[in-house]
Amino acid sequence: MLQLLTLVTLASASLLEAPLGYTSHNGKNYNTIKVDVGTPKQSFELVLDTGSSDTWVPAPQIKSSVFFDKNKSSTYKTGLKLFAIGYGDGDYAGGYWSTDTISVGAAEAKEATFGLALSASTDLGTFGIGPPENSASLDQKFGWGLGFAYTHFVDQLSEQHGISPVFSTWMAGKDRTGVITFGGYDKSRFEGNLNTVPILAGLEYRAQSELLKISDYTYPHPLVYKIDTGAEQIHLPPKIYNKIAQHFETVEGYEGAVYCGQTPRGSIEFQFGHGQISVPFSDLSTPYKQDGKTVKAKDGRDICVFGVVPSDSYEFVLGGAFLRSAYICFDWEKQQVGLAQAKKEVSAERDFVAVKRNIVSQYVGINATTNPLPPQANGAAKTSVGLIAVIGGLVALFI
């Protein structure tokens, strides 16, 4: 009942909100969101991913326990354009672009575009809310050589509900759950003020940190990070990784694993503009699960996935291990992100702020203030690509 009341209040305030989950799937941990597709609704738990820009769900051919049956939806439409997408961890999916009603919590978009996957390396679909310019639909190697653009979910919410095309994430809840808010942000979920920094040139949500501190060590050089809800770990230069890893006991024979239950003192301090985000060492381990059970080492102790990994490729990423300590407002339209220290404990009272649109809106909420993100504090590619391998045989499968 409390969740329902929250959604009703938000809807009247020109803000739309949906809960976020956390799950382990095939040995990997993900931030997830419940997504309903079709009429009547068919429900899916999808990976929430700001690192990619397209949503896809499995078709019956994937042989998943949960799949989308297009024949049961009265609002489903399909075209002849092929869908194919690949991810940095090697996962992929391919099928056909389709349209239907998609909703997450109180946020609903009609005739939303998504991929219906007939072939995939995983049966866990993706809710991609990265920048539209990074869409796999623009890859002209597919769709018989014709790339195309479409209106993405966040922009559809803006058009159909009159809200600003921004969204905010809070992932500091119990059991690593959280909330996504469309159209603005919730001041009750973070400490102090949002510190706004520019998005750097490119097709992804990338922001620059001026310096990084680990206990008594300071890395004085700026680093550019991709802010990626679809990733679980923080990717840092090897030198910084070693400084952090020395505080943990690693598990022999398991790369990137530490023993669970360690609570070393210390934190990683990221400075963005004039603000800081502190990530406690105690939040840098997550149980490593297989078939729903935590894997144990030879000595019987539980194994955890370490929340930091070294990166030699200059591809630095802020994944879930960072996002559980940060409240972030993503605003691609204005090319900026707002960051603040997330509160771990929040009251039932909300303090919503609807972000102003670039185009003046007559749809102004009655239960929320409307403001731009705070002024910028400083002046400071990997692109999802289609995979040829998943295209073969898709036409025959679909027919």
Q: Write the CATH fold name of the largest domain.
A: Cathepsin D, subunit A, domain 1
Gyration radius, rounded: 21 Å
Counting structural domains, the number is 2
Please provide the count of β strands: 30
Helical run tally: 5
Give a short account of the largest sheet. 13 strands, mixed
CATH superfamily of the largest domain: Acid Proteases
* Strand portion: 35-45%
Poorly predicted ranges:
1-13, 359-370, 376-392, 395-399
Q: Using the coordinates above, name the CATH class of the largest domain.
A: Mainly Beta
Could you estimate the helical fraction of the residues in percent?
A: under 10%
Shape: globular
Structural class designation: mainly beta
Q: Give the N-to-C terminal Cα separation.
A: 44 Å
CATH architecture of the largest domain: Beta Barrel
Explain the overall architecture.
- Residues 1-13, 359-370, 376-392 and 395-399 have low confidence and may be disordered.
- 9% of the residues lie in helices and 39% in strands.
- The strands form 6 sheets. Strands 1, 2, 3, 4, 5, 6, 7, 8, 9, 10, 12, 27 and 28 form a 13-stranded mixed β-sheet that branches. A 5-stranded mixed β-sheet has the order 13-16-26-17-25.
- It has helices at 2-12, 153-161, 238-245, 320-323, 394-398, and strands at residues 16-25, 28-37, 42-49, 56-58, 77-86, 92-104, 107-120, 126-128, 167-170, 178-182, 184-186, 195-198, 206-209, 211-214, 217-219, 223-227, 234-236, 257-259, 267-272, 275-280, 285-287, 289-290, 293-294, 303-306, 308-310, 316-318, 326-331, 336-341, 352-355, 369-371.
- The chain is globular.
- The chain folds into 2 domains: 2-167 and 383-398, Acid Proteases (Cathepsin D, subunit A, domain 1); 190-350, Acid Proteases (Cathepsin D, subunit A, domain 1).
- The protein has 399 residues and is mainly β.
- It is built from 5 helices and 30 strands.
- It starts with a helix and ends with a helix.
- A hairpin with a 2-residue loop joins strand 14 (211-214) and strand 15.
